[in-house]
Amino acid sequence: MIETTTNWFAACRVEDAVENGGVCVKCGDDQIALFYFTRRNEWYATQNLCPHRQQMALSRGMIGSAGEDPKIACPFHKKTFSLATGECLSGDECAIQTYPVKVEDGLVYIGLNN
Amino acid sequence: MKQEKIVIIGNGMVGYKFCEKIINKKSDFNLVIFGEEPRRAYDRVHLTEYFNGKTADDLSLSTEDWYTQQGITLYLNDPVKEIDRNNKTIHSSKGLTVAYDYLIIATGSAPFVPDIPGINKEGVFVYRTIDDLDLIRDYATHAKTGAVLGGGLLGLEAAKALIDLNLNETNVIEFAPRLMPRQIDSAGSGMLQSKLKALGLNIYTNKGTSSIEGTDRITSLKFNDGSELKTDMLVISAGIRPRDELAKLSGIEVGTRGGIIVNEYMQTNDSSIFAIGECALFDHNVYGLIAPGYEMAEVAASKICNDTKTFKGFDMSTKLKLIGVDVASFGDPFTTEPDARTILFEDSHKGIYKRINISNDGKYLLGGILIGEAEAYNMLLQTVNNKIAIPPNPEDLILGSRGGSAQTENAGLAGLPDDALICSCEGISKGSICNAVTEDGCESIDAIKKCTKAGTGCGGCIPMVKDLILHTMKQNGKYVRNVVCEHFHLSRQELYDLIKIHNLKNYEQVLDNLGKGDGCEVCKPLVSSLLASLWNDMILKKGNDTAQDSNDRFLANIQKGGTYSVVPRIPGGEITPEKLVIIGQVAEKYGLYTKITGGQRIDMFGAHLSDLPLIWEELINAGFESGHAYGKALRTVKSCVGSTWCRFGLHDSVSYAIRIEERYRGLRAPHKLKSAVSGCIRECAEAQSKDFGIIATEKGWNLYVCGNGGSKPQHALLLAADVDSDTCIKYIDRFLMFYIRTADPLTRTAPWLNKMEGGMEYLRNVVVNDSLGMAEQWELEMQALVDSYQCEWKTAIEDPEIRKRFNHFVNAPEEKDPSVKFDEMRGQKKAADWTLA
């Protein structure tokens, strides 16, 4: 039903991703954090920049859950963000951008707008 | 008796809620719903999340088979077009005719669309349904700029949606002189505007729109003041209009400005026809929030079941997060002198504005506004609604108590009457929540949600519900344990023992066996530290690598700007000239800033992630090893030069320091560990400021423990006097194992001792006199850790799988992070300053 002009960017092979953790994907001039939540068998992608102190660091953070909500904690000051919605879960930082992810034939794709 | 039939017109949130309520009261009604939209009822309050990855299914309030399970007949995509009151039947657009005993009109509202020339142009949208959102999203793919007409609550939600759609520029146009004119005052609006501006939203107030320009599609907006704004699309959010046209057509009374007139039972002038939600007009008010809509559903359902509940109007207090900014408005936010007194707090540095209005006698809170920080909202709302007497210094309500005896959060909770409404969406009182804790044993938010439904609506009351649960448990004499986090209902010490007993070797095993959920940044490093303290496996072993704190995961300290610092171990602070040269060469080769640390080592800053394995390869080849500066582990054993050179020295403090440092290197503990050895009473190594410090005496060594520097300096205390070298090490073994086993997470030895019952006397008894009979076991455990030591960096550089993790980009391993920036200072580099958002 929801079909938009998503542009699928091939990020890496499944085995290059870190289990239950993140890697940073270079996507043109952008950096995208890609998370392989093996425990939940889920993939997530967000901007790599933590909005709190503008550090390119989210891919090096720890993932986990708050209730059912999957989340990422920035390694710098432990600000946490929902991986599903991008919303900041610890304080007033603005939300981070999230991207859809799909896996086909062992390749991980990140969905980019336009 | 014949089964009575209730027909519900409208399958929105309130119509759905009515079904839920009536089924809970009495199950023998025949329910039929007609919905105009093609979808099952969905959560309109969280509609913006649709652009954040939530699907229509996520937003749905029920599962597909809910209606069938409940025996409800659901007609979607089929609006009712006529009510025949004489024959008590309705006719649908698709030609169905259904008879009713009771009719519920829950048609909601439609966006109010002002009559502006050009309003029908392409690229102009409203914001109400998922279909609207689909249209907006499709159009936004070829739009660069967008505008929202209306700066009220919904308008700002719509603006957030446009930001989420990645438009380059989003503008908000408000006719009134301020944003959210129904909820906040102009000073509050000013603060909100500056916060939203910082987030990339352009806001224009006091702007009347005169026309929408463009040939077929919108290209710009013209305003009454002659100005113009170019925009590729426009979302109208200028208020709501009750959907009362069907009622009007059937001769049901409606208000002059719209809305189906209802009495306190939600009945229209036809007593078998009810109106609930945004289409209803009660006491000249249309209620555009979800909580009063649910309350109306409850009242109507009660009336049909012959109960006497009435609708008494509704508190329009609200708290929400708008594009990351907390905004709350409660009670009467605008009342002012001479009817009330106001207290204002404004902090434009942090972007906080708070206003409270209190009664002239200073006894009661009447209402207020919170922008930028709204944690106090729930308590303030309760204070208004329950007419709780306010403190003698009412400013404490928004500033917190400054010194003196403070009214604690729990005292505030205790003061609430049992009928205080905690969850206004579901209408749950304090009494019912406390009851659920006491009678039904609900001791978590999830349990309370299931049992009482509190917290399932907007979720704003959840922090208060949490406090209430704890408060009630404590009152019931329940032991509230100091548990790790939501994933482990155990203390650190309990976890330590259980991991050991069950012989668990990695984080996932621990979580599967002892915890629940998927872990978090609190329990992951804690469990990793326990595993390291117990088994001393290489911390980056698969399964444990991503459970390490960031510094442990990359075996280096992350610094400002995202580079790392490198600290090789220099035991006792002794280093050969050859090794000094190596450090200099490595630092020069990789462009590192160098500084001597407080622990007699050399720190090299500014290393790119991908350079770390190369740097360590060179250091290790030259005989260095990891200094564990990144770990909650033994850092350094500092020493003075001692009897080998010093004319006062009693013993060889350097040799002893090296022996100690090499014994405990890499030892993981609840917090970092520091030590020092001084060769005489002059104490040049400052051993009495360390977790364990040793000072030479005429007869041997004095051992001091539980000191630290840092923000709360504390001197170490004498544990044992005049002991020989081997005995001293035995005591340190026991002391450290006791600490590792029993301390709370991230507690250094000084606060650990401060909390210990019996204090130093007790500790001495345990360590020196072996009062617990643990001495031998602890010494053996420590020896096992010492024997299994490995240099983590040596293991890391020899393992290609681990090395791979030190690349910044997974898909461009040879490239470094281009966002890393340095400045220069005194001939070396320094990290560029934080750039603030």
CATH superfamily of the domain at 5-109 and 242-304 in chain B: FAD/NAD(P)-binding domain
Q: Please give the number of β-strands of chain A.
A: 12
**Mind describing the biggest β-sheet of chain A?**
4 strands, antiparallel
Task: Please trace the helix and strand order of chain A, writing H or E for each element.
Answer: EEEEEEEEEEEE
The order of strands across the largest sheet of chain B is 3-2-1-7-19
Strand content of chain A: over 45%
Radius of gyration of chain A: 13 Å
Low-confidence stretches of chain A: none
Strand content of chain B: 15-25%
Specify the biggest β-sheet of chain B.
5 strands, parallel
Most extensive chain contact?
A-B, 56 and 59 residues
CATH topology of chain A: Rieske Iron-sulfur Protein
What is the number of helices of chain A?
Answer: 0
Low-confidence stretches of chain B: 403-410
Average pLDDT over all residues of chain A? 90
**How many whole angstroms does the radius of gyration of chain B measure?**
34 Å
Helix vs. strand class of chain B: alpha/beta
Portion of residues within helices of chain B: 25-40%
* Amino- and carboxy-terminal Cα gap of chain A: 18 Å
Oligomeric state of the chains in view: heterodimer
